[in-house]
Amino acid sequence: MQHELFTDDPYRRSCQATVIDRDHDSIALDATVCYPTGGGQPGDTGRLTLPDGQVLTILDTRRDRETGRIRHRLSGSTEDLPAPGSTVEIAIDWQRRHRHMRMHTALHLLSAVVKAGVTGGNLGADSGRLDFDTGGAGLDPTEIEQRLAERIEADLPVRTRLIAGEQLRAQPELIKTLSVSPPLDAPMIRLIEIVGADLQPCGGTHVARTGEIGRLRVAKIESKGSRNRRVVLAFVDD
Ligand SMILES: [Zn+2]
Fold this sequence. Notes:
By secondary structure, the chain is of the alpha+beta class. The protein has helices at residues 5-8, 94-113, 141-153, 165-169; strands spanning 3-4, 14-22, 26-29, 31-32, 46-49, 55-63, 70-74, 87-92, 117-123, 127-133, 158-164, 188-194, 198-201, 216-224, 228-235. Helix 2 packs across helix 3.
């Protein structure tokens, strides 16, 4: 059992945890603040402090597909890795993660202002993109920027709630990101609501209010085949 602390509190930057297993370059912990790569959002990086004060770098965080466990890949050699049972302190690279949270929330807004099905997406600390099936129609970057700015300036609250998988199956229109559809057989699925703007299932990390996203620009709109358009967002001056 691992406590995934970023789910209930994406603002938590550090925690103490016990090592539950290690392999040649990574460890699993009984609790973590590190988000694992998924849903288009990169895994967290950070620092891990050993009981003797030695500090290792968390190079990447991923979920093992077979075990479902979150693994933290560490700097140093295999013998530096803490043994199962050791107590360690971990801290995320907060500046990077907070930019992921801002861009991730921005992509939810983007999916709401462009009226077309989402066919893919990805984000990093500087930019993020969504692909839309517009049926070949073009998109106006100025209009998109304006609509995003209105929703950011309105400082809308971002809320989390759980919905039964069964109920979501009855409302498939909530699933926008066709390429990363949530597991509909799960008993409970997490919905992210940007009040008055968007509602969709998501397991990523988001900011608490849209005002925190800051200023955005449409960096690029590209054609991806005859039907698809890719919209790339970037932060303005920070
Ligand atoms: Zn999300």
